[in-house]
Automatic annotation (TrEMBL):
Residues 1-20 form the signal peptide. Keywords: Signal. SUPFAM superfamilies: NIF3 (NGG1p interacting factor 3)-like. This is ATP phosphoribosyltransferase. InterPro entries: DUF34/NIF3_sf (IPR036069), N-reg_PII/ATP_PRibTrfase_C (IPR015867). It comes from Mytilinidion resinicola. It comes from the Eukaryota.
Length: 113
């Protein structure tokens, strides 16, 4: 039963140019499905902001130059993942679709109260 599975929130950051591809990849992996009678899919929250990073000496950055501080517009995406298998597949799909050498993401376990 789906309701008995652990819920997770996957959060990641991506340049706007890769947003559609990243969302398509995680949704294909099972993320963004909300349990219940409505059968909602591809559910996510997206906001834009400014990310920053400084690539290290051994980096191969998609954006910016080694050693230089870079500020870029990025989208923050939050979505629900039902079950550990789904969140693991979604993270793997994100890593495959994301253009950055090291995509920034976080996974949080959701408590059921």
């Amino acid at each position: 039963m789906t309701s008995a599975l652990t819920r997770f929130t996957l959060i990641f950051y991506t340049p706007p140019s890769a947003l559609a591809a990243c969302k398509a990849a995680i949704f294909a992996a099972g993320a963004g499905r909300y349990p219940g009678p409505g059968n909602y899919t591809e559910c996510a929250w997206v906001a834009t902001g400014t990310g920053q990073f400084r690539p290290g000496d051994t980096a191969n950055p998609h954006i910016g130059k080694v050693g230089a501080l870079e500020e870029v517009e990025e989208a923050r995406v939050e979505t629900l993942c039902i079950g550990e298998e789904v969140v693991r597949r979604a993270v793997a799909a994100l890593k495959g679709a994301h253009p950055y050498e090291e995509p920034a993401y976080a996974v949080y376990k959701i408590e059921d109260f």
